[in-house]
Amino acid sequence: MKIYRPAMSDRRSVKGLLNGTMRLGEKAKAQKDDITLLLINSADVVLFMMRVAKETFSRDFEFKEFFRQCFQIGYKTLPLITVTGAIIGLVLTIQTRPVLADFGAESLLPGMVAVSIIREMGPVITALICAGKVGSGMGAELGSMKVTEQIEAMEVSATHPIRFLVVPRVLAATLMIPILVLYADALGILGSWAGVNIKGSVSFVLFFYQAFSVVDFLDFIPALIKTFFFGAVIGFVGCYKGYNAGRGTESVGVAANSAVVVASLLVIITDMIAVQITDML
Amino acid sequence: MYRGFEETRGKESAESVVVIENLKKSFGNEVVLSNVSLKLFQGENLVVLGKSGSGKSVLIKCIVRLLAFDEGKINVLGYNIGELNNTDLGELRKKVGFLFQSGALYDSMTVRQNLEFPLLRIRKELNRKEVDDKILEALENVGLADALEKMPSQLSGGMRKRISLARTIVVDPSIMLYDEPTTGLDPVTSQEISVLINEVQKKYKTSSIIITHDIECARKTATRIVMLQDGAIYKEGSLTDFEKSDDALIKAFFMQSGT
Ligand SMILES: Nc1ncnc2c1ncn2[C@@H]1O[C@H](COP(=O)(O)OP(=O)(O)OP(=O)(O)O)[C@@H](O)[C@H]1O
Ligand SMILES: [Mg+2]
Q: Most buried residue, A63, A74, B34, B204, by CB count within 10 Å?
């Protein structure tokens, strides 16, 4: 057997090492060696992250593409978020009321619902919806660009496809998803107010006052910070899956599908880590 | 370090713009190119023939390092492709036009934006008017000036191919790599494309590698032909060498349109 030798350009660098690992991967795939494959894939992800990070701070930032993506992500998911946000608030209120009523603590209802929406429901549900909508969209779009050689066409047009395609998407997701979460929170609270008003009537001002006497700054900030990570995760996974799609047409579907699965899973895991960290503070 | 273009100009590379030596490329255990050596001379049209799956597309992708090759050496305009850093690779790619087999039009952009994309990035010195003029000229060359504001999804397969050819020639590259420029086109349009390839070559003194199955296109454009088979160059020669050949494989290629 021949010993693996990295190409000249690959020697002497972390990137070279990772590139080397990647090429070993082709052999591993042929032999279906699980552990090697896992290592290869991890190396691949790290390599991709490094490239994205490098291109993020490069001189020619693609502003136009960035704004286009912000619009795509923000505007196109808005109806979906509006409906879910309001319904979550409404349902949560209706479900919680009997429990609180048993303790005669119905006045706590707005506060409790607000806390659970702001801390958990708003961020996680919005992120999961975006993982489905935005993540799969990116996976499919970049995947089909890969399959039809458009990404290669960009490379030969003196444009770094990671800079032009991936960086704006990841940044746009990182920025827009927190905004969507804030919007979902607001609608959730409105929905909750509607829920309270199904039985009895409470003025919005009173409801608002009751809600925000319970919610404080410390509920808000960590919940907001984690949404930036959700956004980054969704953008990154969507782009990674699309950018690394296979060669046939069916790999577009595979890319979109696994983008959703992996992004959703990572959102939940990120949430768990974020909660652990907040808990320690 | 690569050797700059100026440095090698007086030497043998001034004659040959692309030199490939003992190129080897495999995907996993599948060897696609086992040993390819090839030269492209200044100003010529080199036609590459070969069966489907013989690695023709892989070969020209290696030339601009869209695919990393395993062994061997590729020298383009004095740049050593295997050892180029990214900046120099970018510079080199600006001088090489690449027509993709699938066309590879950006489907989120209009035809105009598709042509603008390379033009604005490669020819930064041009002003707005010059850009518009060049776009129009390129589209007129492929006979599709009225498609300017269309989306690729509104075009037929052949039209897409022609737009993509326009996108390749719009930046006036000094080396052109055509991956099946006439496949899927009607005889009349293929003929026009062949003529266009010759015009581009004469006008801009480009050197081209043309991959094709279309013998008529090969007849029209070729200054020299090579045939790829089993990962290596099977035969090299002029059009008449090929047409006179008794080799069964070559005959099979030239039989399709007997003249
Ligand atoms: N990125 C890739 N990964 C794995 N295998 C590849 C890749 N690109 C090409 N191949 C394989 O290399 C071989 C040659 O492919 P190539 O596209 O160069 O053929 P071709 O000569 O251009 O054929 P055609 O005339 O049909 O276009 C094929 O077997 C193909 O499966
Ligand atoms: Mg091909």
A: A74
